[in-house]
Specification:
The complex is a heterodimer of chains A (197) and B (177).
Chain A lengths: L1 H8 L8 H44 L3 H23 L6 H33 L9 H16 L5 H5 L36
Helix pairs in contact in A: 3-4, 4-5
Chain B lengths: L1 H29 L2 H17 L7 H22 L2 H7 L11 H4 L6 H20 L2 H10 L6 H8 L3 H19 L1
Helix pairs in contact in B: 1-2, 1-3, 2-3, 6-9, 7-9, 8-9
The chains are: A mainly alpha (197), B mainly alpha (177).
Chain lengths: 197, 177
Amino acid sequence: MIDEEIRAALDVDPSPEFVARVRTRIAAEAAPSAWRWSWGLAMATALAASATLVVIVSRQHTPPSTSVAGTSVAGSENRHASEGSTTKPGAAESDAKAGRAEQTRVAVSRQARSRPTNTNALVVRTRSEPEILVDPREADALRRLIAGVRDGRIDLAAAQTIASPAAGEIEPVARIVIAPITIEPIAPARGAEGARP
Amino acid sequence: MTVDRELEREFEARLSESSTLAFRVAYAVLRHRQDAEDVSQEAFVKAYRSFRDLRDRDRFRAWLVRMTWRLALDRLRTDRRRAERDRHPDATAPAAAPPAVAEGFRPAAHEALEARERAQRLWAAIDALPEKLRIAIVLANIEEHDLGEVGRLLDVPEGTVKSRLFLARQRLKELLQ
């Protein structure tokens, strides 16, 4: 009897919109978390991108120490060369100045020998950069060529004497003639399929 | 993504089969339709947040019942408006009326008054029960739960449920006489 009364008292159903309201509430509950997650992801991506940009820009604006050294070496070379040229007219001190010029040449050649070390340092430093616009080996070869020409170790006159062949000297290419191809029918072989010996 | 969709599908199934249970548990405490819906909705939201640990059906229903009951008690204790509603009970609440009202039968005025008074006395007696006896008698009269089902919902052995129901019925008889 008591149980029947309690059962009747509890025989109440929620409104028809109840489940729909719960669904809406749960959807609203799930949306902000996804929104927060996407926002966090976007912020992390933006931070990483800006940090990468700052690193790249700072590296691009940092002057390489080797180029400064190379400039100073070139400057000293020019200075010494001009000194050498000015010493020629002098007659009395020509031997002493010639000796000084020889010392200068030796010093320049020492600096030139020490230059590849600086270049290697540049290569090591720039190896971690994202992209290489000029191959360091090519740049090194060009520097050595220029230094060699300035030092007089390399004579470019020999390179100028190498004459390329004139257009008239090149023999014309012989015309290639291909003989017509004739395909003869294949004679049936002995013992082939369908033929009895 | 697939796992999330699977979870959503499972939760939808739990929501469909347990919405009335949660609502009635809350209603047994609050006896107010809108408050009961609010509380059971809050319980479902909490269940959704922890649903990865509550995928098992029995575990989910037991957790939902206990959470709804606790939230309803909290709501009852903290809601100041409750006192006002007790003085002016919700006339639209079916709990205050006998089953004949739900079937569309309109009783005479004195019969309605008598039914309302009897329902009020019944709820007053249920409210006077200790909490463990109260939730046991409520769950035993929702959705025709048997002893085993009530035991699983309360996470207690069937024997414990049986003794609690016996004590609850005995106490209710004494209070209603």
